[in-house]
Amino acid sequence: MNKDLNDLNNKIVEILEKNNIKPIISGDASFIETIRIYEEEKIETILTELESLFKRYKSYSLNHTSVSSCCSPYYYEIRFKIEL
Fold first, then answer.
1. pTM for this predicted structure
2. What is the arrangement of strands in the sheet containing 33-37, beginning at the earlier edge strand?
3. Which domain of life is it from (predicted)?
4. Residue 42, C-beta contacts closer than 8 angstroms, at least 6 positions apart
5. Would you list the domain boundaries of the chain?
């Protein structure tokens, strides 16, 4: 992973940990990332902090949706892609 992606990944992990969310990192960080948040009260804070971080980069997309599944707890899924 190049230094810019590694730095960005570390900052995202810091945002999650500050909100008492334990990150599970999987996949290639240079692609679209997905974060699941199971605590509804934290979603707006995390989205605001991520958007503030991403504004420093050339371009980005950030969106979220709520997911209700028959086989897992209700959660919010945050998806993003960043162009460095």
1. 0.72
2. 33-37, 75-83, 59-67
3. Archaea
4. 19, 20, 21
5. 3-83
